[in-house]
Structure formats: structure tokens, C-alpha cells
Amino acid sequence: xxxxxxxxxxxxxxxxxxxxxxxxxxxxxxxxxxxxxxxxxxxxxxxxxxxxxxxxxxxxxxxxxxxxxxxxxxxxxxxxxxxxxxxxxxxxxxxxxxxxxxxxxxxxxxxxxxxxxxxxxxxxxxxxxxxxxxxxxxxxx
Length: 141
What we know:
Elements: H1 3-25, H2 31-53, H3 61-86, H4 91-98, H5 101-111, H6 119-140
Helix pairs in contact: 2-3, 4-6, 5-6
């Protein structure tokens, strides 16, 4: 199995478990402190990955911008999730809805990153993504 598939499955597992852990963390604390704890956890994971991989550091302004921009967007999404969970939302119903980000990612990767080389491939991936999203929405309602 290719490494990117294994890493994708690991990411899926981690995202799934982290959603439950995050909801449990919000039980007896201010929800926005929960976001702060989430940030600390992310920082610890980032430091650990640097220690393990010892990457060569080469920073360029464009990379810095998109890295920070992506982090701000991700944490904004988590703040939205936090607010919903703090108001008794069910994570099992929320997760399929907010994971419709799959469709957004696929569309943007095709349009902006040109990751699909031909029209047939793009259509196949878009149709597959739509099925994933449709299934997710059906599960949530």
C-alpha cells in the first residue's frame, strides 16, 4: 500500500478520535478554553514531529502566509465546532456535516491546484465526493 494511503487512514483515525476527545474535554470547562487546549495539543504534536523528523528549515514568505492562513481557518472551524458542542450539539451528527469539507477540498484542488489532469478524472472524483457528502448528510438527519 502506498504511503499516502496509510497516512490518510492515520489522519482519518486521528480526526475521528480527536473529535470525541475534544467533546469530552468540554464537559466541565469553558468551551473556549477547550480551543486553547486544542492549540496546545497541536503545538505539542508539531514539536514532536520536528524532533522526530529533524526537517531542514527553509522559510519563504508565501509558505509562511499560507501556513498561517490555513491554521487560522482550521482553528476558526474548530471554534465553530466548539460553540455548537457547548450548546449541546451531537458530535456524531455534526461531524458528517462539517466533513463536507471534502467536497470543497476536491473542488479547490481541481480549480486552483490543477491536481486532476483530465476532465474524466475530475468528473469521477467530483461524483465520488458528492456521494460521500450525500451519505454524510443522510447520516446526520
